[in-house]
Amino acid sequence: MNAGVQEYFDRAANDFDAIYEGRGLFRQWVDRHFRRDMYERYLLTFETCGNVIGKTILDIGCGGGRYSIEFAKRGASQVVGLDLASNMVKLADQYAEKDGLKDRCRFIAGDFWEINLNRHFDIALAIGVFDYISRPRPFLEKMRSVAKEGLIMSFPSKSPIRTPIRKARYWWKRCPVYFYDRRMIETLVAGLGRYRILKIPGQGMDYFVSIQLCQTCNG
Hints:
β6 and β7 (207-213) form a beta hairpin. The protein is an alpha/beta fold. It has a seven-stranded mixed β-sheet with strand order 3-2-1-4-5-7-6, with helices on both faces. The longest helix is centred in the first third of the chain and has 19 residues, at 3-21. The chain has a single domain (3-213), classed as Vaccinia Virus protein VP39 (Rossmann fold, 3-Layer(aba) Sandwich). The protein is built from eight helices and seven strands. The two termini are 28 Å apart.
């Protein structure tokens, strides 16, 4: 993954994670209206996964550990969170310790491309990750190689207004960003398992994708 992605999220760790904590009234209004997909994909993840008691979870691009910790609270036996940004991992460790979940949550600073976990997980998720992946199919295939039951992902959608604005904003931060339409996603996930693609309503909002893993089905 591009080094600019790591540098950006190390710089922005506290501000980005504050989206989940609540900020000033104006920032909350902005987040709820222009980052609504972040809240929607959070709800969709846990709705899709259902009962996770006893499950093992790999959270790629875990950020401040919001998903990982919630999985542990819902009964997952072990959650491993990976993130490029060490400052994000520090936040995740702090939250897990605060909630008394350090025994079931482990957070690692590193690149999923380079880390060999030497194990499998029931579910692997990558929420808010494919925004920054230049080679998405090999990334998906590696996710598939470490998961037994399912994959959960989000993909930023193309928008005539929001896409160029976001591209320009992230270009200035030296952080490349990529966008998708439904056909691109269908091509990417073909052959991995039985998939479901949901578009969060609104221009530029994410696609939420879940894949039930199997050997023969292709959606």
